[in-house]
Design goal:
Length: 399
């Protein structure tokens, strides 16, 4: 066995969920077995080959689902089995040939840092034949993880991952298919687990040679449904069950030092994506006609979504009267009557307050999201450019 695998025999297992990948699964299993002593293949109802017979000569364990139950359920089946065998971690490797089993070695140093981290392999998308749908899906998944947890990792859609089975088996997951991989990251973060990344290689065959069990319509529908549920759950003022207790990261004694508190708040979720999202949410809420409650609602959403509170609170000043309310009322009037309101004054507003309030609400449904998207783009562009300038300055100083 390689020196880097000098671990207890049952500590680390490779898990290979397979569904109709008979052409590649044997080679992947052999290469995983060359690195790790323990390899579990879960045949998730394959119809192209008898996977158990195909791998019968190899020193690997094969678990069989009589029917296709989804990738998520295959991973859970393996995780329960590994925990029963006394294992601590599993590394899931896709069996379509896109992952290099040899990259397992990159996960091991990160796994050994603690016993409560999910480690995700970040795919190198500079290689050939990367589908545009994969690039979009990666950005889409990364965005929603940031919204749901406040955590940014490089590649939420990668299936090459390490899971601690003790915690994985305690987290209740609704998704059984590809939505499992999106849901588990959010719920694990809420439970107190760490999310980490390692860089891995990826191989994409030419489009005509590509085999995938991903159903673009059905699986994207499942993912949308999952993210909607996770986002809604995140907004509820109900604490999530903690599997890993962490030390309080805010010292109450700091309240005696306002400047230190301010510095901490300024650094909160200060990535370009985090700052842009903080600005977008703050302005979206500020445009809505919720009189005298904007600050409190923004604070609540900022806390629940782990946003930068300084940005979210200060961006609301862009929506102060009279311009934005007038714009919303005019838009709402147009939506009701098919023409623009030509006379908008304090007299017309207060004399017909109920109508103006309804129009304000209607118009805000258009103005709020448009304003949020616009400010998101501006803040992201500015923050990303500033980040690049700082990186360039650091590199020039090092040189």
């Amino acid at each position: 066995m390689p020196e880097y695998c000098n671990l207890p025999e049952s500590y680390l297992w490779a898990v290979l969920p397979v569904y109709n990948n008979c052409e590649t699964v044997r080679d992947i299993a052999i290469r995983c077995r060359a690195i790790l002593k323990n390899v579990v293949v879960v045949d998730d109802g394959s119809t192209d080959k008898d996977i158990k017979a195909l791998l019968s000569e190899l020193d690997v364990k094969v678990l069989v689902h009589p029917l296709n139950m989804g990738k998520g359920e295959a991973i859970r089946t393996a995780s329960r089995y590994v925990e029963d065998q006394g294992g601590s971690y599993i590394i899931t490797v896709d069996t379509d040939g896109q992952h290099l089993p040899e990259d397992i070695s990159k996960f091991i140093p990160v796994i050994l840092q603690d016993d409560h981290s999910i480690v995700v392999g970040s795919r190198d998308f500079t290689t050939e034949n990367v589908p545009s749908s994969s690039k979009f899906g990666r950005s889409f998944a990364n965005f929603w993880l940031l919204v749901e947890t406040g955590i940014k990792i490089d590649d939420c859609q990668s299936g090459f991952r390490a899971y601690p089975v003790r915690y994985l088996n305690q987290i209740r997951i609704r998704g059984d298919h590809y939505d499992f991989e999106a849901e588990i990251l959010a719920r694990a973060a809420w439970a107190g687990l760490n999310l980490k990344s390692v860089d891995i290689e990826v191989i994409y065959p030419k489009p005509e040679e590509r085999v995938s069990s991903f159903n673009p319509f059905l699986d994207n529908l499942r993912l949308t449904h999952t993210h909607a549920l996770l986002f809604g759950r995140r907004l509820l003022p109900i604490p999530s069950k903690k599997l890993v207790r962490k030390e309080r990261n805010f010292d109450l004694s700091l309240l005696r030092h306002p400047l230190k508190v301010l510095k901490i708040l300024l650094k909160e979720n200060a990535t370009p994506e985090g700052l842009a999202l903080s600005a977008a949410v703050g302005l979206f809420i500020a445009v809505l006609p919720i009189f005298f409650l904007h600050t409190w609602v923004i604070l609540y959403f900022s806390q629940r979504l782990s946003l930068n509170k300084i940005v979210s609170l200060n961006i609301q000043h862009l929506a102060m009267p009279p311009f934005v309310p007038a714009l919303c009322i005019s838009m709402g009037y147009y939506m009701r009557n098919g023409q623009w309101l030509t006379e908008l004054s304090f007299a017309t507003v207060f004399r017909e307050f109920s109508s103006r309030l309804y129009e304000w609400f209607l118009g805000s449904l258009i103005v709020a999201p448009l304003s949020a998207v616009l400010v998101w783009g501006i803040v992201y562009f500015a923050a990303n450019n500033l980040k690049k300038i700082r990186q360039q300055n650091v590199q020039s100083k090092e040189c």
